[in-house]
Specification:
The chain is of the alpha/beta class and 1359 residues long. The protein is 56% helix and 10% strand. It has a 17-stranded mixed beta sheet that branches. Strands 9-11-13 form a three-stranded parallel beta sheet. β1 (81-84), α5 and β2 form a beta-alpha-beta unit. α41 (938-950) runs parallel beside α43 (975-988). The chain is globular and about 140 Å long.
Length: 1359
């Protein structure tokens, strides 16, 4: 008789289809006799025993037996199993057996066929099993065939264990979507399986716990990162079937891997591994031993298994480890606590075993099991490899290994025990599993006598217990000064195959012996029920469900009504819908579905499993039954379920329905409704007050829990006064939860002083504060940046002994961080003994908030050294650091790590990645991240748009903004996005689109946002509309410094410096304290007017008020003094600056050059290069201009060439104009003209104007006329060109041409704008135009001029 492996309980309590169809020659069991005494004695036994009896009796015999037939149908309908052996039944026999089978349920179905004639029937047999909701399905195909798994098998909800074995590779290629919702264990042997197929299968198995893949062709990458419940993985492969080549399994706990000579990067990610079994499969007929590759491979496997607690190593694996040890390859250290060695003892494995033992400092248990598989590596191949590397096989082995050569097995085991005793220090238990022939040879006695002689420093006691030997070894070390004890070691010697260790096979045991064993192990239903409830109280939900399915599978009558709520609680905690449905079915059969406790548990179970509709069906059935329909607990569960699914309307409807049914709400009902009203927002204020009124009318205001919920509701509504009133009305304020809500509520309402006052009041009232009290008060200190009070709370925390509480320590660290006290935050961090992930995250965030990004990255590296796995919060902060410092490569490496972890799709991380790539100018990478996001929220869109704007890609930013509106109409852009959109419009000077955006924001009210308003001012400023900018400014809040700065800058940009200065004075008069940006903007205006007195007074004002001077402000001061002609002041500021930007250097070079000090400008350029700065186009423009002012022609030409050749800077039109002016002033007009003709681009008006001026200066009429003609074609409406040409004609004596040109100028109505100059006297600027003056002291000025003129004439005559 053959036994079904699937669904077997105990020693095998299910019979096969072979036994149940003995009439077809499929059974060899000897039928029992017809002893009525035996039948009567067993007919009164419980169902669990009767099931086993019937599983051993053929169907025809059981049905015609009168005593058994009465109960046959009852028992047979629960756990039958059909097993068709591969060598016996043909298709007709199987079909005839299935025709007799009438049971509605099947536990196991296994069919093994070696006949090709059976294949056409396979689909129908599988359908038969699936129609009986089979739980264990096993298919075995031995003959060569191209059988494809049928499509209908891929959609099934009953199969829990699936095994498909094929000798010649059946195709597993699901063309439809796979849905195995109940599958927990899957084994695939010798199947053609592609990466796409396994991915589709895994996607359809949401609760898969164990996966076995053996010799699967075509499989390359096995990615299990999206199967978080998969905990066990078994992989076998060989050289013919090498798949998979890469395994990504971050969630598995148990791994069994036996593979051939594969590349060393097989295990990509097994970070959660706790148990591993490793071996090598070698076939000397198919492949040549590559030991060099293998020893690298096995060390890579061990490196991935450093953190496992249970490790099993096979013989071939240990042989390769020995090779690596002999070659001096370094081994990793392990955290293994239980080590199993499945190998015979020989000198080929000893060096590897010794090294593993030495590198396992925490080892507690060692098991040695004699085992040799077919795929082991023969020793001669090991010797050949050693000789190929020039090693002597007689001398290269270690001293420990050499003694194991050519000795008897008995001696080998005793020597091995001696090696273990010498090598290990922490070992507490050792199990040696020997072959049974040791007993037959009678050598056990000799082995036991040898053990005490292993070493002198041990005490040994041996106890023999029924073919087992228990050896207690007490070890100690001695020296001249002290004796030090070591942990005692317990050694058990057992025998593989011994009856004390192996289960008996069914066909070897008489039926009466089985019945006696079952009767002895019978467990009462009461004990099972109490056991289930006890397990659930301990939180061991999975064990409770296993106990239920083990003992309740035979009959639901086992379970009492009081156990079902506990079972449903276990299903809720595990979100195990399948088991919950099964239990629900049993409840319906037993008629207990209207019990209020069970109905409540069912509703809660379906809600927590994510199936609200099922919960609604349960509730509707209960409410319409009329049985206990007024129980408030069921209604509370249903209302809570609606609210958890954010179906607030239905939840409120259920609350009203409860009132209609006459069910009076209790405090819990009202607290649920109140909590939902808080989430709904301020527009639910009136509903909240109505609930409060209902409480008062129905005398429910005495419940402290409900009062606490009310206080929280009022705080969430922003009604802190009402919350205070409720708090004052409470007489008993001893509950700390009440104080916590008040402290946190005032802190969340930004009334931090009241929050801290309540904290002190709670202390004075002797309220026993808990961790939440301290975290709430510390949160208030963080918001108000009250470090002094925070230190006081810190003292209280230390006194209460809560300084190691994870929540309190995190709040302390965050408080110091918000107050800018990073040193204190580091102290808190270092004092925490048990550093959980939250405290690491808080410290990283503290560094980031205080612009100490490099310390954050250093801490992140240290965190990884400590094997602390980061979460999305950690990585988002790290990526933000990379964005802060432009560390693109480091950020990209962090991004690469995310592909190995399931947290890569976190919105916070993706938004941080978007910001990183955008800031680094990697728009392509930013787009890839953005497109890969499953849910694009407002932050993601905003990050992408902002990044494009920062990189100057304004058109792309506006396109993305349009795509956002097209992609999801429900997304309402926030102020950050609108600010970026307006900045894009300003960058493009797209006024029309900017006006549209402005209009839409007026409708939404976002225009009142300070950043939006400032961006609008900047837009109108760049578009030359200061009047529109002023309208936006006047509509904003007057106390905001950002708006004032934007408007001051607007006037400066639009050549209205007087208004800019006037607005700054107005800002000061209104009590707005300026910042560095304000001062910088006003200095720009002052520089344009060259108002030295205003500039100096503003400089003094900045120093007196202690306004922080950043680089921009100092640059503005240098620029102001340079343009006002005071280069000495600018030089003093320059020399005192510690951090000089390139702009600073450029300003000083320009200043020296414009004041004719070209030598100093050139020397400053040399200093710039020594300082490590790289000059830009502005630097060379300033240098050429300096040479122009001083007449250094050759130096200017040299700088022009250096700019192009040494620095690769393409000259701009300004550079060409300065070069023409340089050559023109030096009188080298022909060279200047040749320079213009050699320009790669067409010269603009500034070039020809310089040549025209030089031609007039040096009286070159021909070039002057040529330049003037070019200018007139480019700018025919420019009057100054006509004037220049007329003057040229007059100076050359061509009066007729001058008169003709003057007439043409008058006909066109062109005039030359008069030049002007101004001088500042007593803080008043006096402007003088060419040909006249508008100064109010014009007469006095000319009187002084005439006097000076007469004095000069007199002195001239005197000389």
């Amino acid at each position: 008789m053959k036994i079904a492996n699937e669904g077997r309980d105990g020693d095998g309590a299910t019979a096969t289809a072979d036994e149940r169809s003995s009439s077809h020659g499929c059974c060899k069991i000897k039928e029992p006799g017809d002893s009525s005494e035996g039948l009567d004695s067993i007919s009164s036994m419980p169902d669990v025993i009767l099931q086993v009896i019937l599983s051993l009796i053929p169907t025809r015999f059981a049905i015609r037996t009168s005593v058994l037939s009465r109960r046959w149908r009852h028992v047979w309908s629960y756990i039958p199993s059909l097993y068709f052996h591969k060598d016996r039944p043909d298709a007709n026999s199987i079909n005839e057996t299935l025709a007799r089978y009438k049971a509605p349920k099947m536990m196991s179905f296994r069919i093994c066929t070696s006949e090709l004639d059976n294949l056409p029937n396979m689909d129908s047999w599988i359908k038969f099993a699936l129609s009986r909701n089979v739980e264990n399905l096993s298919l075995y195909l031995e003959r060569r065939s191209d059988y494809n798994i049928p499509e209908f098998l891929y959609v099934n909800s009953s199969v829990k264990n699936l095994c498909i074995e094929s000798i010649f590779y059946s195709n597993i290629i699901p063309k439809c979507s796979v849905s195995w919702t109940s599958l927990k264990n899957m084994s695939l042997w010798c199947c053609k399986l592609s990466d796409e197929s396994i991915a589709k299968i895994l996607f359809g198995c949401p609760i898969l716990e164990s996966l076995t893949l053996c010799f699967c062709k075509e499989l390359k990458v096995l990615d299990l990162s999206k199967s978080p419940r998969l905990k066990t993985l078994v992989i076998y492969n060989d050289s013919v079937n090498p798949g998979p080549r890469k395994i990504v399994a971050p969630h598995i706990h148990r791994l069994r891997l036996k593979n051939t000579q594969l590349p060393c990067d097989l295990l990509v990610d097994v970070s959660s591994l706790t148990e591993a079994k490793l071996d090598i499969s070698y076939n000397s007929y198919r492949e040549k031993l590559n030991a060099d590759l293998l020893h690298i491979m096995v060390l890579e496997r061990l490196d991935k298994c450093q953190n496992v607690e249970k490790l099993t190593l096979g013989e071939s694996f240990l042989e390769i480890l020995s090779l690596a040890e002999l070659r001096g390859v370094p081994f990793p250290n392990f955290k293994v606590r239980a080590l199993t060695l499945e190998t015979p003892i020989s000198h080929y494995v000893i060096p590897g075993i010794v090294r593993v033992l030495q590198n396992s400092p925490e080892l507690k248990k060692l098991t040695l099991k004699y085992k040799r598989d077919d795929g082991f590596i023969p020793g001669i191949y090991i010797d050949e490899n050693l000789r190929s590397h020039g090693l002597d096989t007689d001398k290269c082995w270690t001293s420990e290994a050499r003694v194991f050569k050519d000795i008897c097995p008995l001696r080998a085991y005793s020597l091995f025990l001696q090696v273990v005793l010498k090598t290990t220090e922490t070992l507490e238990k050792m199990v040696v599993m020997l072959e049974p022939y040791f007993i037959a040879k009678g050598v056990m006695k000799e082995l036991l006598e040898m053990i005490p002689l292993l070493t002198r420093n041990i005490n040994v006691s041996i106890v023999k217990t029924r073919c087992r030997f228990k050896i207690q070894v007490k070890r100690f070390t001695t020296n001249a000064y002290q004796q030090k004890s070591k942990p005692s070691l317990e050694i058990k010697i057992v025998f593989c195959g011994d009856d004390a260790d192996m289960r008996f096979k069914l066909h070897d045991v008489h039926i009466r012996r089985r019945l006696s064993r079952l009767a002895d192990s019978y467990i009462s239903p009461a004990s099972v029920n109490s056991g289930i409830r006890a397990l659930i109280q301990k939180g061991e939900y999975l064990q409770a469900l296993h106990l239920y399915t083990k003992h309740d599978g035979s009959s639901p009558l086992w379970t009492s009504v009081f156990t079902f709520p506990s079972l449903l609680k276990a299903c809720s905690s595990l979100t195990n819908l399948s088991s919950g449905k099964t239990i629900h079915g049993s409840i319906i059969v037993l008629g207990w579905r209207y019990d209020p406790f069970i109905a409540t548990s069912l509703v809660n179970m379906y809600v927590k499993c994510g199936f609200l509709d099922y919960a609604v069906q349960v509730f509707d059935g209960w409410s319409q039954s009329g049985v206990s329909a007024r129980d408030v607990t069921v209604c509370n569960s249903m209302i809570d379920g609606y609210f958890k699914f954010r179906r607030f309307k239905e939840g409120v409807g259920c609350f009203r329905r409860m009132l209609v049914l006459g069910v009076r709400p209790d405090a819990f009902s009202l607290s649920i409704v109140v909590s939902v009203l808080c989430k709904e927002g301020n527009f639910r204020r009136e509903d909240g007050k109505q609930i409060h009124g209902y409480m008062l009318r129905n005398s429910l205001d005495g419940d402290s829990f409900l009062k606490t919920a009310l206080i929280d509701m009022y705080f969430k509504f922003g009604l802190s006064t009402d919350a205070w009133r409720v708090f004052v009305e409470i007489e008993d304020k001893s509950n700390v939860v009440l104080w916590n809500v008040m402290i946190v509520g005032f802190g969340g309402s930004e009334i931090c002083e009241s929050s801290l006052e309540l904290y002190m009041l709670a202390k004075s009232n002797s309220v026993k504060l808990v961790s939440t009290s301290f975290t709430g008060a510390l949160g208030a200190c963080s918001q108000s940046e009250n470090s002094a009070f925070g230190r006081q709370i810190h003292c209280d925390v230390v006194k209460m002994g809560l300084d190691n509480d994870p929540y309190v320590s995190t709040s302390l660290l965050s408080m110091y961080s918000k107050c800018g006290m990073v040193g204190e935050a580091e102290t808190v961090f270092s004092c925490v003994v048990d550093k959980r992930l939250e405290i690491w995250n808080a410290m990283v965030a503290a560094y980031v908030e205080n612009d100490n990004g490099y310390s954050a990255l250093e801490l992140f590296g240290f965190m990884r050294q400590k094997s602390v796995l980061p979460d999305s919060f950690t990585l988002s902060n790290v990526i933000s650091c990379c964005s802060m410092f432009g560390l693109y490569d480091y950020g990209k490496s962090v991004h690469a790590e995310l592909f190995k972890r399931p947290i890569q799709s976190t919105p916070a991380i993706e938004s941080a990645l978007l910001t990183l790539y955008s800031k680094c100018g990697c728009d392509t990478d930013a787009y890839l991240v953005f497109k890969s996001m499953e849910e694009k929220d407002m932050v993601a869109w905003g990050s992408l748009i902002s990044g494009l704007c920062k990189n100057g890609k304004f058109k792309e930013a506006l396109k993305v903004f349009g795509d956002m509106k097209d992609d999801d109409d429900s997304l309402k852009p926030d102020s950050d996005i609108m600010t970026s959109v307006i900045n894009a419009c300003a960058g493009l000077e797209a006024l029309s689109f900017g006006l549209q955006v402005h209009g839409s924001m007026i409708k939404t009210g976002q225009v009142l946002n300070v950043f939006v308003g400032s961006s609008l001012i900047d837009l109108y400023s760049k578009c030359g509309l200061p009047e529109m900018a002023l309208k936006v400014f006047t509509s904003m809040r007057p106390e905001n410094i950002v708006a004032w700065n934007s408007m001051i800058s607007c006037y400066s940009r639009n050549n209205l410096p007087e208004l800019s200065i006037e607005l700054f004075n107005l800002m000061l008069s209104q009590g707005i304290f300026p910042d560095s940006v304000s001062i910088t903007s006003v200095l720009v205006a002052i520089s344009s007017t060259a108002s030295l007195l205003k500039g100096k007074s503003l400089h003094g004002y900045t120093l007196r008020l202690g306004i922080p001077s950043d680089t921009h402000l100092k640059n503005a001061l240098i620029d102001m003094y340079v343009k006002c002609g005071f280069s000495k002041y600018a030089e003093n500021i320059f020399k005192k600056m510690q951090h000089k930007s390139l702009i600073t250097w450029n300003l000083m070079i320009y200043g020296y050059g414009s004041h004719g000090d070209c030598r100093t400008a050139l020397s400053l350029f040399d200093e710039l290069k020594k300082a490590g700065e790289t000059p830009d186009d502005v630097t060379f423009l300033s240098l050429i201009s300096a040479c122009n002012h001083s007449g250094f022609v050759e130096e200017g030409k040299n700088f022009f060439e250096i700019m192009k050749q040494d620095y690769g800077i393409e000259p701009k039109m300004e550079h060409y104009a300065n070069m023409v002016d340089l050559l023109g002033r030096a009188g080298r007009l022909e060279e200047a003209y040749s320079f213009i003709k050699a320009m790669p681009t067409e010269a603009d008006s500034s070039i020809w104007l310089c040549l025209l001026s030089a031609s007039r200066t040096h009286h070159n009429v021909e070039l002057g006329i040529l330049s003037a003609e070019k200018l007139l074609r480019m700018e025919p409406e420019r009057g100054s060109t006509y004037v220049q040409l007329i003057n040229l004609y007059m100076e050359a004596g061509l009066k007729n041409e001058a008169a003709k040109l003057l007439g043409e100028m008058k006909e066109r109505g062109l005039q030359k704008q008069p030049g002007c100059s101004w001088i500042e006297v007593s803080d008043i600027s006096n402007v003088f135009f060419s040909g006249g003056s508008s100064s109010p002291i014009k007469a006095e000025i000319f009187k002084v001029l005439n006097r000076l003129k007469s004095n000069m004439v007199t002195e001239d005559k005197a000389t």
